[in-house]
């Protein structure tokens, strides 16, 4: 009976650990933000808070531009103003 209790307790502990660890592992493996629709206009540089590249596993290379109003906008990787904003941000930070 004691062996059965220990075995059940061990299995329960492992199951709980897996349930806690699994979402964190999946979160790290999956792309944080991929773009599927792209903004075709221009965001004024004064309104840009940050510019990030999409994850390398995303289907399309793009930038995610965050505005002063906390809006996240997808912009194609080839768009000149987005490239310049990204370079400017990385020169200041780097």
From TrEMBL:
UniProt GO cellular component terms: extracellular space
Identify the residues that the record assigns to the Chemokine interleukin-8-like domain, covering every copy.
31-89
**What Pfam families does the record point to?**
IL8
Which keywords does this chain's UniProt record carry?
A: Cytokine, Secreted, Signal
**GO molecular function list:** chemokine activity
**In terms of domain of life, where is this protein from?**
Eukaryota
Its annotated compartments are:
Secreted
- Span of the signal peptide: 1-21
Q: Which InterPro entries match?
A: Chemokine_b/g/d (IPR039809), Chemokine_IL8-like_dom (IPR001811), Interleukin_8-like_sf (IPR036048)
Gene Ontology terms: biological process: immune response
Name by which UniProt lists this protein: Chemokine interleukin-8-like domain-containing protein
Q: Which organism is it from?
A: Gasterosteus aculeatus
């Amino acid at each position: 009976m004691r062996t059965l209790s220990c075995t059940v307790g061990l299995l329960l502990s492992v199951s709980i650990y897996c349930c806690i660890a699994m979402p964190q592992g999946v979160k790290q493996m999956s792309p944080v933000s991929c773009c599927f629709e792209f903004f075709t206009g221009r965001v004024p540089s004064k309104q840009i808070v940050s510019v990030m590249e999409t994850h390398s596993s995303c289907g399309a290379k793009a930038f995610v531009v965050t505005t002063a109003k906390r809006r996240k906008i997808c912009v194609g990787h080839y768009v000149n103003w987005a490239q310049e904003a990204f370079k400017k941000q990385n020169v200041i930070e780097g």
